[in-house]
Amino acid sequence: MIRVLLVDDQPLLRSGFRALLDLEEDIEVVAEAGDGMEGLTLVRKHRPDVALIDIQMPVLDGIETTRRIAADPALAGVHVVILTNYGFDEYVFNALRAGAAGFLVKDIVPEDFLHAVRVAARGDALLAPSITRKLINTYVTQPLRTGTGPGLKELTTREREAVVLVARGLSNDEIADHMVISPMTAKTHINRAMAKLHTRDRAQLVVLAYESGLVAPHDS
Fold first, then answer.
1. Strand, coil or helix: what is 61?
2. What is the reported pTM?
């Protein structure tokens, strides 16, 4: 059973999302909150698999709420998905840097919304290739570091290759095909790289890969 927490200051939207989720046999909404501080309290209480968090809220916004969740080792199993009205922007980028697994625009079609919740619950990054490219082209334009950030030197050649392919938006199966290895081995390389780089999930791995200079924006 996938346990979901809803955090949004608009009751009507929360009700709509909950109505969709409640229809699914494998998903349970464990609680709702109207602001980030309340949401943080409920996340600590219920420890859901997925926390759907609005990016702009009173008291505590979605970015800071995400940052506090990501910083708490007891909440390592909570996958944050940011909810936004406006699509990808600097706020969403900052939420990804803070530890969010991805984001959803609130006018998403129901089928894609439910799929996204299941993807997030598995621990996969919720970043479509088109969004990843916009992230890269729009926000990773500052002078990049040299590719020797914390942990990068500890990566094996195969782990580094896997990180580059993750940053280019490939799935585990596609990475396995590219590297001529099994999907399980590809996943192992990625997980070891995340551990060495101290990244919470694939979304943070993508951001780090570009900000560190391991991958250049034009390589995507």
1. coil
2. 0.76
